[in-house]
């Protein structure tokens, strides 16, 4: 983990550099301080290499709200854990797309892509290197995610890592890529009050999912502000994951529908534990 230092500014490039440095390190060596304990369905973990399990840095399990046959987009897919779980759920007729900006994390996910697909029995996962707030093209400028092409967008503790000035664009992109009946299911860290600017400028807290955390009510509002209809809180950690300078940070999982219907959401069991 990098030593704590102040970001020069909250400009996207500064935030991105801090996040990339930390998660590149996390792809090469386990970073326990980034982990928020989550109970996953053990059935889906059997085919996953231990390295992927050890280097997973999430705070929830949005994959439990995915259906057979769907097209799933995972924002900030990291080492591929959620993608490979979702691959098993959607089956051979579905497909899974992972987007991540960190080359080391993508290398980890792709390292086992053939092996995991062989164990599952089908190969329906594809990874892109790109920015989750700009899903139209990848880092090479090639087309990435088309309009209204995805049934469900999932993300596991990544939206908070996006720079403040790009967060609205991020939610607009989620809305754009979803089919008219599509939904987003997002696990992320929220705070009970707004995070002060002094904490936002701490690079270690940024990369550790603290500085960029959404204030809890503002998290839901970010979806409605870009056009999402029904919004449902699926789980919320009873106890804070961390308390920093008196501010409580906890995990929540939220679903937001592009249309008026809430059809298509399987009711998962259990809840986030952090």
SSE diagram, text form:
Blueprint: H1 12-28, H2 42-45, H3 50-54, E1 71-75, H4 81-90, E2 95-100, H5 103-111, H6 113-120, E3 125-129, E4 150-156, H7 167-177, E5 178-191, H8 197-200, H9 203-207, E6 214-215, H10 216-225, E7 231-236, E8 242-244, E9 247-257
Parallel strand pairs: 1-2, 1-4, 2-3, 4-5, 5-6
Antiparallel strand pairs: 5-9, 7-9, 8-9
Helix pairs in contact: 1-5
Structural account:
With 274 residues, the protein is an alpha/beta fold. It has one domain: Vaccinia Virus protein VP39 (Rossmann fold, 3-Layer(aba) Sandwich). The protein is built from ten helices and nine strands. The protein has helices at 12-28, 42-45, 50-54, 81-90, 103-111, 113-120, 167-177, 197-200, 203-207, 216-225; strands at residues 71-75, 95-100, 125-129, 150-156, 178-191, 214-215, 231-236, 242-244, 247-257. Strands 1, 2, 3, 4, 5, 6, 7, 8 and 9 form a nine-stranded mixed sheet that branches. Helix 4 (81-90) links the parallel strand 1 and strand 2. Helix 1 (12-28) runs parallel beside helix 5 (103-111). It is globular. Mean pLDDT is 89; it is low at 267-273.
Secondary structure: number of strands: 9
Series of secondary-structure elements, N-terminal to C-terminal: HHHEHEHHEEHEHHEHEEE
Mean pLDDT: 89
What is the CATH C level class, in words?
Alpha Beta
Q: Which shape, going by the Cα principal axes?
A: globular
Beta percentage is 15-25%
How far is the N terminus from the C terminus?
21 Å
Largest sheet: 9 strands, mixed
The structural domain count equals: 1
| Uncertain runs | 267-273
Structural class of the helix and strand makeup? Answer: alpha/beta
Q: What name is given to the CATH topology?
A: Rossmann fold
Number of helices: 10
Helix content: 25-40%
Supply the CATH architecture. 3-Layer(aba) Sandwich
Roughly how many Å is the radius of gyration?
17 Å
The CATH homologous superfamily corresponds to Vaccinia Virus protein VP39
